[in-house]
Amino acid sequence: MRPGLLALSSFLGLVAASLGVPAAAAEKPSALPACKGCKPALERVAANPLRNGDRARDQYRRPVETLSFFGVQPDMKVGEYAPGGEWYSRFLGLYLREKGRLVGLYFDTTSTAFDASRQAGIRKAAANYAADVAKFTGFPAERFAAYTLDAVPEAEKGTFDVIIVPRMLHNLMRWNIAESEVARMRDLLKPGGVIGIEQHRAKPTAPDDYADGSKGYLREADVIRFMEGQGFELVGESEANANPKDTANWPEGVWTLPPTLALKEQDKAKYQAIGESDRMTLLFRKKA
């Protein structure tokens, strides 16, 4: 078995052993209350002139629909997992800067998934996060925070309303750190707190070696089963980030499509016309 497949082995086995009924079909999710007043506030952020450089990707990332579905209210404490290019950080920073609290949550740097150089890079990114968001939003850096998951202060545990995980679960699977990272995030959530996952979606019939994270795609039923095994219950599913043009069977994986365009100029117009990947958008609540 290749490195990176171990994280999936336990729940792929459960999938194979099941009766073939998709996890989502077993019982209907118990819906959370609607995010009252969220959409107008999110729309104002989406239209903010400070986002002129980010807005082109809204058609694929649909922040208003996604964050409204996740129930992110302006006065909440929200964790953004693996901020990366900080596209969501900038949006959430504007949305939460007055009443809420935005915290960047970075990989556990003690993990064997990262060499010393990468560990140092992750720590540096976390150290710069608050200043980055402050510079963009115009609010003091003290309004924001960031931690690597191995260095979160004890007082932060059990204080988060929502943690969002955009397009990252496949990496955790292939690096064999999904269970440990999700467990740490679970500890940070309040009782009944939620994790919102946006993830490149494989077809239900995709073979295991395509849907193991190595191509960027995961099967939706597998993600649901995995999260349920980590102490969460599914409470909502959205098609806000669906893209039926994505056949999700590219030899170069999800990176064939924009924004990466792994094949460079080869069939570039074709992939640009397809757009970014088909994505599941799932909401999970922490069980007691």
From TrEMBL:
Keywords, sorted A to Z: Methyltransferase, Signal, Transferase
GO biological process, alphabetically ordered: methylation
Gene Ontology MF annotations: methyltransferase activity
Superkingdom field: Bacteria
SUPFAM superfamilies, per the entry: S-adenosyl-L-methionine-dependent methyltransferases
Signal peptide span: 1-25
Name of this chain's protein: Predicted methyltransferase
Organism: Novosphingobium panipatense
